[in-house]
Amino acid sequence: MQPEYLMHPNIDPVIVSVGPLAVRWYGLMYLLGLAFAFWWGSRQVKQPRHSQAGWTEKRFSDLVFWSFMGVILGGRIGYVLFYKFADFIANPLFLFDVLNGGMSFHGGLLGVITVLAIFAKKTQMPLLRVGDFVAPLVPVGLGFGRIGNFINGELWGRVSDVPWAMVFPDAGPDPRHPSQLYQAFLEGAVLFALLAFFARKPRPMGAVSGLFLIGYGCARFVVEFFRQPDAHLGLLSLGWSMGQWLSLPMILIGAAMMVWAYRSKGNTAAKGAA
């Protein structure tokens, strides 16, 4: 007798629509992540050690806005370059075809780093100090984003027979890992708890940023073993997915940053770490 598996709830991705305007769950998840980052950061910026490091509420609110723009632009550009480059070469306007979706975390990260670099130069704050403040604000938004993927029934996992395997509407009849929920848990809840706990005490400048890169890179690398590779890319060298190859440099750079932070002669506590 064939075992019964869980069925994806097949939630309508559109919450409500009025004429051509539609509010989607995925967009709502982005807004929830942004709202949490703003709330958590606003609490942190009021602490003496952060205000003494040059943080003000206005500076922080400006940074949140531009970082959000960096996520959107970098995420889209990264997706096109990393995952759909052939489509872009065939039709450069594909870059602007945002209605059909397509975002890359690694591209969004590069977009945010660009914004942070500009912000650091403008405010004359060390880039690593800015990164240390921002890093703990990111994971919850990542977790909400993965929940949005699950609601949309996209980016499903590989075929599996585990008891919690799930049949997704557009993934055929085979049950699969709900890898979006794995990512929401590891990249969202676990990574946030790790960073929030680590950053409670002053740390060497760059240590919190380094831990974020290691934590996300490891979480993403592991979950990729359960996530279905992109159909047009498949598995690459060593049987690794594109997500794993993009995460490996994050882990190595993060580890190097933490070693540098703790060994540097200028090993002063990062007053700007959240």
Automatic annotation (TrEMBL):
The chain crosses the membrane at residues 23-42, 63-83, 103-120, 127-147, 181-199, 206-223, 243-262. One of its GO terms (molecular function) is phosphatidylglycerol-prolipoprotein diacylglyceryl transferase activity. It is found in: Cell membrane. Pathway: Protein modification; lipoprotein biosynthesis (diacylglyceryl transfer). GO terms for biological process: lipoprotein biosynthetic process. The gene is lgt. This is Phosphatidylglycerol--prolipoprotein diacylglyceryl transferase. It comes from Pseudidiomarina sediminum. GO terms for cellular component: plasma membrane. PANTHER family: PHOSPHATIDYLGLYCEROL--PROLIPOPROTEIN DIACYLGLYCERYL TRANSFERASE (PTHR30589:SF0), PROLIPOPROTEIN DIACYLGLYCERYL TRANSFERASE (PTHR30589). It is a multi-pass membrane protein. Keywords: Cell membrane, Lipoprotein, Membrane, Transferase, Transmembrane, Transmembrane helix. Belongs to the Lgt family. A 1,2-diacyl-sn-glycero-3-phospho-(1'-sn-glycerol) binds at R146. It comes from the Bacteria. Its EC number is 2.5.1.145. InterPro entries: Lgt. Signal peptide: none annotated. Catalyzes the transfer of the diacylglyceryl group from phosphatidylglycerol to the sulfhydryl group of the N-terminal cysteine of a prolipoprotein, the first step in the formation of mature lipoproteins.
